[in-house]
Structure formats: structure tokens, C-alpha cells
């Protein structure tokens, strides 16, 4: 059977695959559209597998709530251009709905979760990898249930915050705390969460960068401890000066609303991922020489 533009268009509408991929699939299957669908799936999996070792450090972080349950997750891609792709953003919407309407609370469960389309999130990411042409993967998920839930999604789609409060805090005040978390990027909710390793590492840096020449031992120790306390306060949400009123800490602001903050999640795209810097000019030159 001849491979016509109409046949290519029909296959593309069925699979959302690229025009050239549809043409190749139909040529490989002598114009049999059912076999072409299978061909695309099989070759899509191969393409996705080849991209499995690539570094995906861009993408989208997104939070959503229905008032009773809140979720936040990060889906990575290889370039930031993908966050502007309609298919990618449609996948983000589908994942958010599925997570919000489930009881999944970890990555393993999320990957196996079925979407409205019938495929699992893991399968949908593999399919998106083949269709979009970049490695797409769900990196992390967090959820909360009950209490007062507040979320914040930054306009650049790179930072999302999910908070869970207990008490009488209003939605407006809870949202202000969300915005503070997004802007200031605290590593910890409270000082109780700070590991001894982190404290030791910071103290080592402080000792290496502080001139204590001529200072008595007790004075020197006081200076070092004071600098450490200041550093720990900078990375602890409840001890940070509140951005809307720097005369009080975030902890005191929340307490003044007769509330407590139980859980904090701040997802920023790519944090903690070692990015690979590619010299495209050298890469192309090497290909030409080859």
C-alpha cells in the first residue's frame, strides 16, 4: 500500500508521534496502519532506552491541592525548552490529577499509578521520551493530608512549595509563608532537623575563614558558636526573618496565628543533580571529523 500524506496524518493523530517517524513506520510496514502503531511503540521504547543514561536536570516542579490532600512533584527533561511543549505540560496536568486523586505518597507508588489514559506514569514518561525526543522522568513526589494545606507554584514552573499546618491560620497567611519558602529556600523546617554532619561541616568552614588571632579561648569559642548559630538560622525556616515583617521570625509569625507548621516541601527543578555542560561546537566538529 502506498504511503500517502493522508495516511501519515491519520497515524500522527492516533499516536502523537512526529511526522517523519510516522512516515518511517508506514514505510516499514507497507502502509499497514495497525502494524505501524506497533512499530512506533517498539521503536519508541528503543529510543527511550537509549536516552536512559542522559542527564535530565530541567523540567517542571508542580504543586496542587483539593483542600483535603496536597501533592508536589518534579518531572525532569533534558532542556528547559520542553517546559513550553504542550504535550509535556499536558502530561504534567495528567500526572497531577492522578496523584491528587490517589493515596500515593512515594516515588515507587507514583510510577506505577495509572493515568486517565490507562498507562502508568512510568509508561507515560517513556512514551513522552520517544515522542518529544528528550529523556522525561518523574524524579520525586511528596504528599500531605489533613489540616490547612497551602501551595505555591512559581511563574517559571521551576519552584513549587507544599505546606501543611495545624491550627487556625488563614489561607492568606499560609500562602504568604509558602511564598517565603519559595523565595528564601530554607533547607530545614526547624533546627531539630539539622544533622550533626551539617553542623560539623559548617563549623569547619567557619573555623577556616575566621581570624581568631589573639582571642582568648572562651571568646574564640563564643565567636565561632555565634557564627554557627547565625548560619543555622539562615537555613531553618522557623528561625528566618519573615519576608513580610522582618521584625519577627517565621516561627513567631505562625505562632501568632495559633498554628504550627507540620510539614514543608520545596521542590526546585534540578537541585542536587550534577549537570553536564556540553560543548556543542566541539561535539559537531568531532562528528564532522568522524
TrEMBL record:
<dbReference type="GO" id="GO:0005737">
    <property type="term" value="C:cytoplasm"/>
</dbReference>
<comment type="similarity">
    <text>Belongs to the EF-Ts family.</text>
</comment>
<dbReference type="Pfam" id="PF00889">
    <property type="entry name" value="EF_TS"/>
</dbReference>
<dbReference type="GO" id="GO:0003746">
    <property type="term" value="F:translation elongation factor activity"/>
</dbReference>
<feature type="region of interest" description="Involved in Mg(2+) ion dislocation from EF-Tu">
    <location>
        <begin position="79"/>
        <end position="82"/>
    </location>
</feature>
<keyword id="KW-0251">Elongation factor</keyword>
<dbReference type="InterPro" id="IPR009060">
    <property type="entry name" value="UBA-like_sf"/>
</dbReference>
<keyword id="KW-0963">Cytoplasm</keyword>
<dbReference type="InterPro" id="IPR018101">
    <property type="entry name" value="Transl_elong_Ts_CS"/>
</dbReference>
<dbReference type="InterPro" id="IPR036402">
    <property type="entry name" value="EF-Ts_dimer_sf"/>
</dbReference>
<comment type="function">
    <text>Associates with the EF-Tu.GDP complex and induces the exchange of GDP to GTP. It remains bound to the aminoacyl-tRNA.EF-Tu.GTP complex up to the GTP hydrolysis stage on the ribosome.</text>
</comment>
<dbReference type="InterPro" id="IPR014039">
    <property type="entry name" value="Transl_elong_EFTs/EF1B_dimer"/>
</dbReference>
<dbReference type="InterPro" id="IPR001816">
    <property type="entry name" value="Transl_elong_EFTs/EF1B"/>
</dbReference>
<feature type="domain" description="Translation elongation factor EFTs/EF1B dimerisation">
    <location>
        <begin position="70"/>
        <end position="271"/>
    </location>
</feature>
<protein>
    <recommendedName>
        <fullName>Elongation factor Ts</fullName>
    </recommendedName>
</protein>
<keyword id="KW-0648">Protein biosynthesis</keyword>
Amino acid at each position: 500500500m502506498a504511503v500517502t500524506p493522508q495516511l501519515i496524518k491519520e497515524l500522527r493523530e492516533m499516536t502523537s508521534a512526529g511526522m517523519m517517524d510516522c512516515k518511517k513506520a508506514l514505510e516499514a510496514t507497507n502502509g499497514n496502519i495497525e502494524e505501524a502503531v506497533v512499530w512506533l511503540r517498539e521503536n519508541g521504547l528503543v529510543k527511550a532506552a537509549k536516552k536512559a543514561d542522559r542527564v535530565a536536570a530541567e523540567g517542571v516542579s508542580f504543586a496542587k491541592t483539593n483542600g483535603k490532600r496536597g501533592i508536589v512533584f518534579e518531572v525532569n527533561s533534558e532542556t528547559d525548552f520542553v517546559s513550553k511543549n504542550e504535550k509535556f505540560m499536558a502530561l504534567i496536568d495528567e500526572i497531577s490529577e492522578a496523584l491528587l486523586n490517589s493515596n500515593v505518597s512515594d516515588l515507587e507508588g507514583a510510577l506505577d499509578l495509572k493515568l486517565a489514559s490507562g498507562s502508568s506514569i512510568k509508561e507515560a514518561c517513556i512514551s513522552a521520551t520517544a515522542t518529544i525526543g528528550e529523556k522525561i522522568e518523574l524524579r520525586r513526589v511528596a504528599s500531605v493530608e489533613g489540616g490547612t494545606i497551602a501551595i505555591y507554584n512559581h511563574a517559571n514552573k521551576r519552584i513549587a512549595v507544599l505546606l501543611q499546618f495545624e491550627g487556625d491560620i488563614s489561607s492568606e497567611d499560609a500562602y504568604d509563608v509558602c511564598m517565603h519558602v519559595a523565595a528564601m529556600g530554607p533547607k530545614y523546617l526547624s533546627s531539630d532537623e539539622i544533622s550533626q554532619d551539617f553542623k560539623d561541616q559548617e563549623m569547619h568552614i567557619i573555623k577556616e575563614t575566621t581570624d581568631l588571632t589573639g582571642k582568648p579561648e572562651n571568646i574564640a569559642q563564643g565567636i565561632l558558636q555565634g557564627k554557627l548559630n547565625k548560619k543555622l538560622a539562615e537555613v531553618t525556616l522557623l528561625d528566618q526573618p519573615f519576608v513580610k515583617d522582618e521584625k519577627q521570625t517565621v516561627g513567631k509569625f505562625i505562632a501568632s496565628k495559633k498554628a504550627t507548621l507540620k510539614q514543608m516541601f520545596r521542590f526546585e527543578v534540578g537541585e542536587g543533580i550534577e549537570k553536564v555542560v556540553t560543548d556543542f561546537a566541539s561535539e559537531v566538529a568531532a562528528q564532522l571529523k568522524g
